[in-house]
Amino acid sequence: MARKKIALIGAGQIGGTLAHLVGLKELGDVVLFDIAEGIPQGKGLDIAESAPVDGFDAKYKGANDYAAIEGADVIIVTAGVPRKPGMSRDDLIGINLKVMEAVGGGIKQYAPNAFVICITNPLDAMVWALQKFSGVRPEKIVGMAGVLDSARFRHFLAEEFNVSVEDVTAFVLGGHGDDMVPLVRYSTVAGIPLPDLVKMGWTSQEKLDAMVERTRKGGGEIVNLLKTGSAFYAPAASAIAMAESYLKDKKRVLPCAAYLTGQYGVKDMFVGVPIVIGENGVERIVEVEFSAEEKAMFEKSVASVQGLVDACKQINPALA
Ligand code: A3D
After folding, report:
1. How far from chain centre, in Å, is Cα 73?
2. pLDDT category, 274, cuts 50, 70, 90?
3. 9: CA distance to ligand 1 center in Å?
4. Within a 10 A sphere around the Cβ of 266, how many other Cβ atoms?
5. ipTM for the whole predicted complex goes beyond 0.95
6. 137 is in an annotated binding site
7. What is the C-alpha radius of gyration for the chain, rounded to an integer number of angstroms?
8. Known binder of ligand: residue 174?
9. Distance between CA 104 and CA 316 in Å, rounded?
10. Residues annotated catalytic, as ranges
11. Catalytic center at which residues (predicted)?
């Protein structure tokens, strides 16, 4: 059986980390694409030279021409610019929308049947634009954000409770902005919901609220520490979990930005919701019931995404 082909569009901080993880997990052969000459070739060669040490088999190819992604099974898009301190994700929209147009054209021409995962910010608007530019069927394109946001929340919770991260589940929905919606009720330690853990004295409501707030601002916390860019290890790991669920038909239930056609009262937008990812891409969109407070938070988050989508339509009227 031929190895799967995984194309990484953008060979920067996240792209390079993705390329390394694909090898370590033996998910397939890798094409690294970037407009910067030498970077994808150099990173590909460097990782290929680590393979004998780590004992994995994968071919690496660096490219500056879209023809190299031809027939890719999975495409992960990180092309564009990341945030610097003081910038919001939304400040990136002008530059990254143009990048999505170029990337979408490449995908349309060379790999229209791939499963596409977008990471470029502002996430929910960029994945929406990328779907329009590429023409990829909506069930074959998703945005990575919820897995990362949930992982951040899980990390904070595991530290607070002094338990394994493996036994902490978390649920973060909505757009990937500071008004994302961490669903405390659906987040658990070994199946015990967080509100019960507060009642059991494991933590206080104040501390839980602070962890929710830290999760919402988790991306900014890293940007302020790094100063030269944004998070890349956890974002890459999160996208790999999504790619793996598709490639191995694992049917994992993961929070991702998915194209909604009326679910949660939202139409023609990508918003973070729980989905099942299997060999057909997005195989199911899970609709959970919200409390009045959660619904209000979700609607606020959706309104922010709508604002970004409207801004895209203004910048590029072809999207309207
Ligand atoms: P960075 O290390 O700058 O890599 C981006 C790469 O894109 C660079 O190598 C550029 O040369 C390349 N590039 C720019 N324009 C093009 C183009 N037209 N075609 C192909 N390649 C191009 O950034 P990064 O890897 O740290 O982050 C990449 C993106 O992910 C940014 O937009 C971040 O904001 C975003 N990001 C999203 C999350 C989410 O959770 C959604 C988390 C972290 C970062």
Report:
1. 17
2. very high
3. 9
4. 18
5. yes
6. no
7. 19
8. no
9. 14
10. 176
11. 176 (proton acceptor)
pTM above 0.95, yes or no: yes
**Integer Cα distance of 315 and 92 in angstroms:** 13
Reported as a single tens digit per residue, the pLDDT across 8-56 is: 999 999 999 999 999 999 999 999 999 999 999 999 999 999 999 999 9
Alpha-carbon gap, residue 92 to 88, rounded angstroms: 8
Tell me the two tokens of residue 39: 């970077």
What CA–CA distance (Å, rounded) separates 240 from 76? Answer: 9
Chain centre to alpha carbon of residue 2: 27
| 307 Cβ inside 6 Å of ligand 1 | no
Task: Specify whether the backbone of 6 is left (phi greater than 0), alpha (psi in -120 to 50) or beta.
Answer: beta
User: Token pair for residue 168?
Assistant: 């902490």
Residue type, 124: D
If you write DSSP's letter for every residue of 249-298 in order, what string do you get? T--EEEEEEEEEESGGG-EEEEEEEEEEEETTEEEEE--PPPPHHHHHHH
Decide: 43 in ligand 1 pocket, CB within 6 A.
Answer: no
Using CA atoms, how far apart are residues 80 and 98, in angstroms rounded to an integer? 9
Is residue 165 within 8 A of residue 158, CB to CB? The reply is yes
Question: Taking a C-beta distance cutoff of 8 angstroms, is the pair 89, 122 a contact?
Answer: yes
Give the CA count within 13 Å in the CB-facing half-sphere of 142: 34
In whole angstroms, how far apart are CA 177 and each of 38, 121, 124, 220? 33, 10, 9, 10
